[in-house]
Amino acid sequence: MEQPQGFQDKEQPDSVCKLHKAIYGLKQAPRAWFTCLSAALLSHGFRASLVDTSLFIFLHGDIQIFILIYVDDIIITGTHSKVISSIISKLQLQFPLKDLGPLHFFLGVQATFSSNGLHLCQTKYISDLLHRTRMLGAKPSKSPCSSGAKLSKFNGEILPDPSEYRHVVGALQYCTLTRPEIAFSVNQLCQHMHSPSSTHWTAAKRVLRYLKATPSHGLFYSKGPLQLQAFCDSDWAGSPDDRRSTSGFCVFLGNCLISWSAKKQPVVSRSSTEAEYRSMAIATVELYWLRMLFKDLSIPLLHAPILWCDNVSALALASNPVYHARTKHIEVDYHFVREKVINGDILIKFISTLDQITDIFTKGLSTTRFTLLKSKLLVDSPPISLQGTVSEPPPTSSSTSSADAQDYSSSRVISNGIPQDTVISSYP
Description:
By secondary structure, this protein is of the alpha+beta class. The protein has three domains: about 25-105 and about 410-425, no CATH class; about 120-215, no CATH class; about 225-360, Nucleotidyltransferase, domain 5. The protein is about 30% helix and about 20% strand. It is built from eleven helices and 17 strands.
């Protein structure tokens, strides 16, 4: 610490101000902490990513090291375990660190490794949520919402105390990190946070009952081709209150789902074509950002990303300038998507509605349809060989003698707090 500018005491230059409030409570603390940590990383040869401010990259010859920061928790991974250990040792000279070894538990997400790939789930987080909401004994549900379900602000009686509803929906939002199949239902619930009713609370408990039936389900990642492809869709005028459409998209790298969204559009669309086209624009933005991220990571993408859409009119709009006069009201989205198509940054292709995966992000589906699309997202329980291997967070100490640590010693996770010790864990 040092004396603030304009208030230096020349007679006592080594004295500092006494804080009457914890440093974590100060508004400028997060920015000051990030500036301090990023300066340390930059001094060790890292560079900040241009597309993700929390990502730092070290590239030297065949050495590739990546550090991802979330406040005082850090994941570090790379190609050379000795270089990773050297970087951690250098950081330990500046910050108190704890090396947790291979990644098993990070920010409520459990990571389980096998010879086939990586499984991410939030079993413990979901169990704690069900216990907190007294839903452990509830009847399980096969889907998070009923077919064709659309919540309205005029349904049901207003809850006298909405605090529990808001806490539950906020927790469900965090569950969508590894449970994309509940994104549409959670988005519907989030639209009524200001004035929830008994109907909305019943819908929230339906999502909890679905999680009760599938607590260990999560995303599975395996090696595959470096090919980006996205699916986009919309539910035209789906909101019964303001008739705004719901947009949804999901992005796959090879066969693995890496990005998804279910969100109400900010304006009313005058046609299904306009609603679909706005969804295409949102998905195109995500694809373009991912391309920039892969370029930042020095990972080559040999083929242009493919965007699948089930609306013929929207496809024609993206490739045929004749339609320009009819689309002045969506001109910005029109020019953006068309520019990317002309430049070859993305390829737009038609897909049958029956094969459209993004339906799960835009509307309530029947149990059969929901189960089918959920399987295409690779959301499932971990393999039998991995079940029960990670039930609790690992101890806050290194475990490099384990078999997992030997297999994945080229990566770590780091956690760092200003007044506390930093924690490091590994990611292969």
